[in-house]
């Protein structure tokens, strides 16, 4: 290796205590999470561990050197398999990875990675693979080729002119333009049956209202999603105008030759377009989308509007990983189920810092949830700010299965957030009651299909059919991201009165005892005039046993279900032993 690789670390050469590790070695032999920080001393690592918190379980340090090519190609080079993911490749294999601040010039080059962590699959005998988290900028083995500044300024359109051009007939047919502006909005990466894409919006620095949307769907450009940062100024080259199927609205779209550049004022020149000509017909007024069925079923319920905002915080707890439920800053809930977050799920653990753009805030949702909940739709973006210093927690079986079933609740059953939160809690309660003695967790939480219905959904079907009757999918990603006024499943909601619960016998016993002691009155069992003449031994004998009959209506929610049909409606008998009074 060239000696310059070691400069800036420990000396002119690489540290002798470190050994090289290949991708195949990590995948085959490294069964425990680990991290490697080439430039750190032992004291620096201990300080890093302390920042993980007193209750954290920090990643152990290994003295390993990792070399590889950073790429967005998942398969053979000829196949051009690109879906927006990043990988580290060497001669022995390939590993998926995540990067905080991606520089697009890194792609396709050989690097030494000075600071990284490796997370093996949660279940070693599964078909899943581990992944890398690249903490710091990689060090190139060979000098990177720096793109020279353009000889002539790049002619660009700014958002106001680009937006007005979209309304003119025949002005841009077959013509490509360069657009420049500040990134004011970034959608999530959408994977549809046809193709993957995301949508970004550029705005003007002197106008907060004017913005223009651009669709990015070329496979080689999907990786831009990891490099874009809201608030930064960019230039997108060689854009064309396109129409979205089913909409009159025209949008800008990248071409296969488009490039993403940082905006440097000295390298661009504003283009003065000809803005005269016949206008296109305005888009018809958007149709009112069907409201969530929860709003219809509860005429007394107050239909609330969620708030769109941006938020930065740290994950402090994992509530239900397959369902996409987490805790933020110890006081907020985070639901990622309304985005396609499979790639993000693997890095989500306590200590991860996130930046949430255009996220919905829902308060007082009910359904067993008391804290406010943040939930991004397809219009918003979840951006990584810092990886976690902690090892992934050991998940129980019920926390390792069910991801496809929870996705089915959102994308096929079209559940609103309050009802979705209740359904996830109910499935957890049922799994505690039935698994693993009656069923295995993967059997109970399996994806429901016409030939193989899910038992979990069958048990919840009566309630779900009442509160959210099955209907054809109405979620349109393009409309959800582009439409003004904004409409999505998270925009309006009604507080859900918990329809039912499935408590364990231990929980039921504890609640019954609490209610019984709260209503216990010794004088009702033994009148005071009679008790005043009895010795203590006779008093204790008379008060030794007492009982209280509790009906299902005494519990909250009022209907306690999940029992065999023949037992429903029967009272619960809680036998209490009275304590010695004297």
From TrEMBL:
> Region entry Disordered: which residue ranges?
279-302
> What keywords appear on the UniProt entry?
Chromosome, DNA-binding, Nucleus, Telomere
InterPro entries to which the protein is assigned, alphabetical = CTC1, CTC1-like
One Gene Ontology cellular component: CST complex
Q: Where in the cell is it found?
A: Chromosome, Telomere; Nucleus
Keyword Cell membrane found: no
Superkingdom of the organism of origin? Eukaryota
**Principal location:** nucleus
What is one process in the GO biological process aspect for this record?
positive regulation of DNA replication
Coiled coil as a keyword of this entry, yes or no, is no
User: GO molecular function, one example?
Assistant: single-stranded DNA binding
* Similarity comment: family membership: Belongs to the CTC1 family.
Tell me what this protein is called.
Answer: CST complex subunit CTC1
């Amino acid at each position: 290796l060239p000696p310059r690789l070691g400069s800036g670390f420990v000396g002119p050469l690489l540290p002798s205590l470190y050994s090289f590790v290949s991708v195949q070695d990590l995948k085959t032999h490294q069964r425990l999470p680990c991290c490697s920080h080439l430039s750190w001393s032992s004291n620096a690592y201990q300080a890093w561990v302390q920042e993980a918190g007193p209750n954290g379980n920090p990643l152990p340090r290994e003295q390993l050197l990792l070399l590889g090519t950073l790429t967005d190609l998942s398969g053979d080079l000829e196949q051009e398999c690109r879906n927006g993911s990043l990988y580290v490749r060497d001669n022995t294999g390939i590993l998926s990875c995540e990067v905080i601040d991606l520089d697009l010039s890194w792609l396709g080059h050989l690097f030494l990675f000075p600071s990284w962590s490796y997370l093996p699959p949660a279940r070693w005998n599964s078909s899943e693979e581990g992944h890398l988290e690249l903490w710091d900028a990689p060090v190139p083995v060979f000098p990177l080729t720096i793109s020279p500044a353009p000889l002539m300024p790049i002619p660009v359109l700014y958002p106001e002119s680009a937006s007005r051009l979209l309304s003119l007939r025949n002005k841009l047919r077959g013509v490509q333009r360069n657009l420049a502006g500040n990134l004011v909005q970034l959608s999530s990466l959408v994977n549809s049956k046809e193709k993957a894409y995301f949508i970004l919006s550029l705005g003007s620095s002197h106008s907060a209202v004017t913005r223009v949307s651009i669709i990015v769907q070329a496979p080689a450009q999907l990786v831009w999603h990891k490099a874009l940062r809201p608030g930064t100024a960019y230039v997108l080259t060689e854009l064309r105008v396109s129409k979205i199927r089913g909409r009159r609205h025209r949008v800008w779209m990248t071409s296969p030759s488009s490039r993403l550049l940082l905006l440097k004022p000295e390298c661009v020149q504003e283009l003065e377009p000809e803005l005269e000509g016949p206008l296109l017909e305005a888009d018809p007024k958007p149709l009112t989308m069907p409201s969530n069925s929860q709003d219809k079923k509860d005429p007394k319920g107050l239909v609330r509007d969620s708030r769109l905002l941006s938020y930065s915080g740290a994950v402090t707890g994992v509530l239900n990983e397959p369902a996409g439920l987490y805790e933020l800053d110890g006081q907020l809930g985070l639901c990622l189920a309304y985005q396609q977050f499979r790639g993000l799920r693997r890095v989500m653990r306590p200590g991860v810092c996130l930046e949430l753009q255009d996220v919905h805030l829902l308060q007082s949702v009910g359904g067993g949830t008391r804290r406010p909940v943040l939930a991004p739709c397809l219009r918003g973006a979840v951006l990584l700010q810092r990886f976690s210093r902690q090892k992934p927690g050991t998940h129980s079986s019920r926390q390792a299965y069910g991801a496809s079933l929870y996705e089915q609740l959102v994308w096929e059953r079209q559940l609103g957030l309050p009802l979705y939160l209740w359904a996830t809690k109910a499935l957890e309660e049922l799994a505690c009651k039935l698994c693993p003695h009656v069923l295995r967790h993967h059997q109970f939480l399996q994806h429901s299909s016409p030939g193989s219905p899910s038992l979990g959904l069958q048990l919840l079907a009566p309630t779900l059919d009442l509160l959210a009757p099955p209907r054809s999918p109405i979620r349109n990603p393009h409309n959800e991201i582009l439409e003004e006024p904004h409409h999505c499943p998270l925009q309006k909601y009604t507080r859900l009165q918990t329809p039912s619960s499935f408590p364990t016998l231990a929980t039921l016993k504890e609640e019954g005892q609490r209610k019984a002691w709260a209503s216990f009155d010794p004088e009702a069992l033994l009148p005071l005039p009679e008790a005043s003449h009895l010795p203590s031994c006779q008093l204790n004998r008379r008060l030794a046993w007492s009982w209280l009959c509790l009906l299902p209506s005494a519990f909250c929610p009022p209907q306690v279900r999940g029992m065999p049909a023949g037992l429903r409606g029967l009272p619960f008998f809680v036998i209490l032993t009275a304590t010695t009074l004297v």
